[in-house]
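Input.
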Amino acid sequence: MPPANKETLLYICQFLADVGRYSGINQMDNANLAMVMAPNLLRDPSSDAEMFARNSENEARAIQLIITMCSDGSLRSDQYFEDA
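Output.
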């Protein structure tokens, strides 16, 4: 992943983790945030509705994992992503 893309993804996910910290007020926990944001962050190039439906749950789980890892401090910019 190119460094600019990596830093942007981590910045967005850190922001979402910050939003999730207020889930008692805004009712947007990491799962809800991931469900809303995953289609924007991990867009499937296919226009097939069936494929979109099959992939959406896995995409949301992946984004939820990244948000959770950002919120507990286990994901930093120098980890997990190789530079292109």
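The first helix runs from residue 3 to 20.
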